[in-house]
């Protein structure tokens, strides 16, 4: 996967793009892209969302 901190649209192919944790949409050049990050047991975790609506609908946060 491409570095999740890179700017969207910078050489991100759909094949390498992150998927929305709620609906599974590939996130390529979406200005509504949201990432939630947290540290658990000394490891960094993150989840990508294509929109505020998908973020609000996530059951695991």
TrEMBL record:
Classification via Pfam families: DUF7576
Protein name: Small CPxCG-related zinc finger protein
Species: Halobellus ruber
